[in-house]
Amino acid sequence: MTLQQLNYIITIAETGSINKASEKLYVSQPSLTSAVKDLERELGIILFNRTGRGVTLTAEGADFLPHARQIYLQYLNLMEKYGKVEKRKQKFGVSCQHYSFAVKAFVEMVKTYDMAQYEFAIREVKTSNVISDVASMRSEVGILYLSDYNRKAIMKLLKSNGLSFNHLINCSAYVYLWKGHPLAGRTSISFHDLEPYPCLSFEQGDDSSFYLAEEILSTNDYPRSIKTTDRATNLNLMTGLNGYTLCSGIICEELNGSDYTAIPYEADSNNPNSIMEIGYIVKNNAILSSIGERYILEIKRYLGREART
């Protein structure tokens, strides 16, 4: 097995076509096909299903691909740091729960690079997809949170996917709502105060679990609730229906606008507060690319500013 063969497999999987991969790699189609068959014989598995419309990964190929990506990406990151590689359009992706600060840090990171020379991606996705994206190396970095309630379940998922969690900041719960909301003038808001209004939360899919919820205090019994899939819809429902969500209190006005506010959640004996430990996940023993390092730096800078305000 060679690094070149791994690159071939990754490119074919991404393009879904031997012909398109051949054009992208500047390798003849017969040579590419031969290299794949040689690797399949060496491994004793079939990586691709070949049809008239292109190729798709077999079950064995789908299992092999994340390992191939990890090895090849780590090679490229090592060469970037310590060696010389041919000029290439470097890729960098982030998958995160719906955090405006994660997007803001991404914006600041991208500004420091020539976008014509890189392929950037940021994905605000379900919690399970944050984990699977980093596990499959679709994204280099993931952003999510732990709490006393979900920590054991999430850490088990991270361990089974070969991922590590790295602490960024601890936050208490805040109620996030628009400034025209009847409760917007309060210095704190209790669960009882919120009962007449709809609680907004991000949908986690058919196999959703309380452990995967993005909102802290997800186990509370909310009499009114609405599921959404994106931050823009959440903001619209806050304005249109006096909805609210529970969050970290770290809000980026530059991206979300100045019409919204975060007010401390007031705990009681039946509805206690909780701590969100926000952090980033990466593959175990991963060597971050320089872009990955820069992104983490921008997140720490932003969260550091927020912690001082």
List the helices and strands and how they pair.
Blueprint: H1 3-15, H2 18-25, H3 29-43, E1 48-51, E2 54-57, H4 59-82, E3 90-96, H5 100-110, E4 118-124, H6 127-135, E5 141-146, H7 151-160, E6 163-172, E7 174-178, E8 189-190, H8 191-194, E9 199-202, E10 225-228, H9 231-241, E11 245-247, H10 253-256, E12 260-266, E13 275-283, H11 290-308
Structural account:
With 309 residues, the protein is of the alpha/beta class. It is built from 11 helices and 13 strands. It has helices at 3-15, 18-25, 29-43, 59-82, 100-110, 127-135, 151-160, 191-194, 231-241, 253-256, 290-308; strands spanning 48-51, 54-57, 90-96, 118-124, 141-146, 163-172, 174-178, 189-190, 199-202, 225-228, 245-247, 260-266, 275-283. The strands form 4 sheets. A 5-stranded mixed β-sheet has the order 4-3-5-13-6, with helices on both faces. A 4-stranded mixed β-sheet has the order 8-12-7-11. A two-stranded antiparallel ribbon has the order 1-2.
Biggest sheet strand line-up: 4-3-5-13-6
The tally of beta strands, per DSSP, is: 13
Order of helices and strands: HHHEEHEHEHEHEEEHEEHEHEEH
| Separation, N- and C-terminal Cα atoms | 53 Å
Task: Report the helical percentage.
Answer: 40-55%
- The computed structural class is alpha/beta
Low-confidence stretches: none
Shape: elongated
Sheet with the most strands?
A: 5 strands, mixed
* Average of pLDDT: 87
Total of helices: 11
Over the alpha carbons, how many angstroms does the gyration radius reach?
Answer: 22 Å
Strand proportion: 15-25%
